[in-house]
Amino acid sequence: MKTAFQQNTDIKMSTKTYSQSKNDDNSLVQQCFNSSATTYQQRAVLQKDLGTDLLKTLMPAVVNNREIILDLGCGPGLFSQPLSELSEHLISLDASLSMLQANPNSQTKLTCDSHQLSLLDNCVDLVFSNLMIQWCDFETVVNEVYRVLKPGGESVISTLLPGSLYELQQAWQVVDDDEHIHQYQSLHTIQDCLANMNWKTVETQTKRYTYYYESARALARELKSLGANAVKGRSSKALCGKGKWLAMESAYVKNFADPASNLLPATYRALIIKLKK
């Protein structure tokens, strides 16, 4: 009898591959997350706050333990413990082997491309995905989530929307016209995509999170430590020179510094999505 996965604690490499062009597009993102596996846990403030809010949307629906929960884009396992407490079996899945090696889940770990999940159809009771899908092709990944969910199964997903890090983006616009911030899909595009799928119910909620930093460089260091410094479509691959950095920092302080503390805000616009098959 086939099972959803092979039940042991070894990290399993998927034999599935996504199209080469997509792999090329995502190679920078995967490289950034691989390099941040050891620093992610300490710096993941937004990820912890948003993931906690995502978990709260799930709680009313979890009266009885789910048999199988998939933590999609699990990273180093920020939510492995609470998810394992809600399930008989937790699958931690990520494209980054380094992230999985840092993940404390003692049940099943899978490394594969989220665009082609190495799981059987209709095998998972719940999919939990916190701040992963913004790095992917949204429609492809959500279709895969639908495929692996059992009928009646649910998925809770968080992502970021345009307007995230707008302070940093506007500060860079004073310097040049290059891309310095990841371009997120609009709420309208996401909602249209979901409306054209076969989900039984779709619920969305927007939230805003703001954090404060001593300098723009402190924010940049945090983004790098999280692997969130990958920017697709950036024309210049070289590091920015000192002059550009100073000009950007000056614009950030001038336009956005808090008058009382002189700290710099960094704002994120988030979307929480709850789906039922």
Automatic annotation (TrEMBL):
Pfam families: Methyltransf_11. Residues 70-156 form the Methyltransferase type domain. GO terms for molecular function: S-adenosylmethionine-dependent methyltransferase activity. Gene3D superfamilies: Vaccinia Virus protein VP39 (3.40.50.150). It comes from the Bacteria. GO terms for biological process: methylation. The keyword Methyltransferase applies. Keywords: Methyltransferase, Transferase. PANTHER family: ARGININE-HYDROXYLASE NDUFAF5, MITOCHONDRIAL. This is Methyltransferase domain-containing protein. It comes from Psychrosphaera ytuae. The lineage of its organism: Bacteria, Pseudomonadati, Pseudomonadota, Gammaproteobacteria, Alteromonadales.
